[in-house]
């Protein structure tokens, strides 16, 4: 059963994760969902793409009258998400094959670190556009880097030498049933991620950067313990999102009214 309080409070206290920049975007995501619900005339239907263990419920405050649905490939992840008591329904879906929903089913779609694992990002974005209602919003959070082609080549070469056990590369390994996770196969730059989202007729209306380094350098993890470092990184990446290693993109499905799309020049200014 879903909670009946005005909002679902995060299951993990924010003070426990506040010193890790990898979670910083959840505050922006929470506020974006809250703003959409406050301006809506009815309870929003939200689709959590690649919901995993229910991170949206773990890290976000979401209005309790929203109807949250989740999809993921891995049964164990879905069981953990179900334990959060926040989702109306959860579905096991291989995103490579599309979405099992009728068109214009959802008011909001959250796509949190999903495109990086898919070989057919354009097809997936087209599916998100299809199941999103007119005037609905898409929230995409995804890593970026300055040399995506080089990183992609390095990743492919590395996989030939070593690939983690029970990890699958969905571009060349369609049989996922013995796996527990996917590995990153798609790499974006700042420009290519925005262009990719726009390529299926979404209108980008917001871009926010988070983090500068995604790698697991021990020094970076230690620096995140200091508030001054976290404030500095967030100041730089939000003011200059093209410097960020992670982007939070808000896109809009145009209905019959005109909506101004955010230009790359303005976003980078």
Structural description of this entry:
By secondary structure, this protein is α/β, with parallel strands linked by helices. It has one domain: Rossmann fold, CATH 3.40.50. 33% of the residues lie in helices and 22% in strands. The chain contains ten helices and eleven strands. The strands form three sheets. Strands 5-4-2-6-7-11-10 form a seven-stranded mixed beta sheet, sandwiched between helices. Strands 1-3 form a two-stranded antiparallel sheet. The radius of gyration is 18 Å and the shape is globular.
Secondary structure elements and pairings:
Layout lengths: L6 E2 L5 H4 L7 H15 L5 E5 L5 H5 L2 E2 L3 E6 L2 H8 L6 E4 L13 E7 L8 H11 E12 L4 H14 L5 E2 L12 E2 L7 H9 L3 E9 L7 H6 L3 H13 L6 E8 L10 H5 L1
Parallel strand pairs: 2-4, 2-6, 4-5, 6-7, 8-9
Antiparallel strand pairs: 1-3, 7-11, 10-11
Largest sheet: 7 strands, mixed
Percent strand equals: 15-25%
| Number of β-strand runs | 11
Mean pLDDT across residues: 87
The helix content, as a percent range, equals: 25-40%
The low-confidence parts are: 3-15, 257-261, 265-269
How many helices does DSSP assign? 10
**CATH architecture descriptor name:** 3-Layer(aba) Sandwich
Written as H for each helix and E for each strand, in order along the chain, the element string is EHHEHEEHEEHEHEEHEHHEH
CATH class assignment? Alpha Beta
Q: What Rg do the Cα atoms give?
A: 18 Å
Biggest sheet: strands side by side, in what order?
5-4-2-6-7-11-10
Which geometry do the CA atoms define?
globular
Identify the CATH homologous superfamily: Vaccinia Virus protein VP39
State the separation between the terminal residues, measured CA to CA: 46 Å
- Which structural category fits the helices and strands? alpha/beta
